[in-house]
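seq as requested:
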Amino acid sequence: MAKTKVLITVKTYPAISKKHEELVCTAGFLEDGSWVRIYPVQFRKKAYNEQYAKYDWIEVDLKKSNDFRPESYSPISHDTQIVKIGEIKPDGDTWEERRKIVLKNVHTNLTQLIAEAKDRQKCTSLAVFKPSEIIDFTYEAEKVREWPADKLAQFQQLNLFEPEKNNEFKVVRKLPYKFSFKFKDDEGRESTLMIEDWETGQLFWNCLKRHDGNEKKACEDVKKKYFDDFAKTKDLHFFLGTTKLHHFKSPNPFLIIGTFHPKPITQFKLF
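struct tokens:
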């Protein structure tokens, strides 16, 4: 694919791996409205001028990864430069310019979407989805609240070889709660899908700080934003994505990896 222009719309909450250290899964749209997944990205180790935001246009050298999912690409290397070349601003909160790219192909039927994912010719693994009804937004405490010790050990070992560089870098905290949407599709099928958006996790940490460590109040504030605000007052769409491990194994391999939540357009322009 070589140097590619991508509109960033998804950044998942950071995870850690033995092979790639701390990683973020990024996804977005090409200019024609087709999806591209960019993984792995050591986002927080990037220089400040390379740390893109959602709805930034970037240019980056990409290659097809060994991931079977057709949308999956990788930077040429971890050191590949990411260049921010523009952005699409909210333009009055209805996000009209963003809609032109993001909403070119919207799914409304989860059964059909899962069938596309399971079809080995299509292997659809990224999609925009419009729920017909939001039933609830829930949270559940994680049973394991810290990163596995064997994965953290890799960072300690790296410090032995690059002490000056790595002592400045602190691994992101593991999110201690799972947040999920319960919703219906256009045939009334009910589903509950976890949301892994970085913004969701960061909102929890910000609320936790504001409530002096009260996790219950922090979780309720997250629910107010996603259920009382996004679900009830916005034109809410989900960005859905599969994981490579569960794409063919899970009955429903999709997770919510981001939200698209402009204000509804109540009056269309005549000209």
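The first helix runs from residue 91 to 102.
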